[in-house]
Write a structure and sequence with these properties.
Elements lengths: L3 E4 L6 E3 L1 H5 L9 H10 L1 H7 L5 H12 L5 H10 L1 E4 L3 H8 L4 E6 L3 H10 L8 E4 H4 L6 H11 L6 E5 L2 H9 L3 E4 L2 H11 L4
Parallel strand pairs: 1-4, 1-6, 4-5, 6-7
Antiparallel strand pairs: 2-3
């Protein structure tokens, strides 16, 4: 029996606008696919998401290596806003689920986006437990971050249903014994819950 619904944030419940926002800051034009690929391989975003860089060091390295046309301080202000909003319907969906399930979030995030989610968007208040990669030093699909979530929730993996928009993260959760599904946004979550007869 499913007792916990565990959600990724960006691309599932929260809009991340970084790929779109960084494009006009680049000196050379790049497609969205090229930016996504470069972002996923960027050692600075990964280190920042693991809590290994200060925000100042992250900004300096990112601006330098991506050759952005703005000072690091201004970049940090822009970067924080790229966790832009709760997707429409997200809060309402979670509120409808909360009486029947424990709700948790497991996100590859960083201190700036986590601050914005918690303080500006009220995201963390929607969950019983919210965990970010920068807090624990592991990021999905590393199995250790899922194990941290299971330990803090105090449940076996077969009582958890997990939703993420990245295939590798879903595979890793499934290998640990969770019921795991790749979804696209709030409607994707809603459709899966309906198919699983949980909504």
């Amino acid at each position: 029996m499913v007792k916990v619904l565990l959600f990724d944030l960006g691309g599932v419940l929260v809009e991340f606008s970084g790929v779109r926002e960084v494009a006009p800051l680049l000196r050379l034009e790049a497609t969205e696919a090229e930016i996504v690929k470069r972002w996923s391989r960027c050692p600075h975003t990964k280190a920042f998401g693991l809590g290994l860089l200060s925000r100042e060091d992250f900004a300096e390295r990112f601006v330098r290596d991506w050759e952005l046309d703005l000072p690091p301080g201004h970049f940090l202000q822009a970067f924080r806003s790229w966790s832009s909003r709760l997707l429409p319907g997200a809060a309402e969906l979670l509120a409808s689920l909360r009486p029947r399930f424990r709700l948790a979030a497991l996100s590859n995030s960083n201190e700036l986006h986590w601050e914005r989610n918690a303080n500006d968007l009220g995201v963390n208040d929607l969950f019983d437990l919210a965990i970010s990669s920068h807090q624990v030093g592991f990021c999905k699909p590393d199995p250790r971050i899922y194990q941290v979530a299971l330990e803090r929730l105090g449940v076996p993996p077969d009582q958890v249903m997990f939703f993420d928009d990245v295939h590798a993260n879903v595979v890793a959760a499934a290998q640990l014994g969770m019921r795991a599904f790749q979804v696209d946004g709030v409607e994707g979550v809603r459709e899966r819950l309906t198919r699983e007869r949980l909504l």
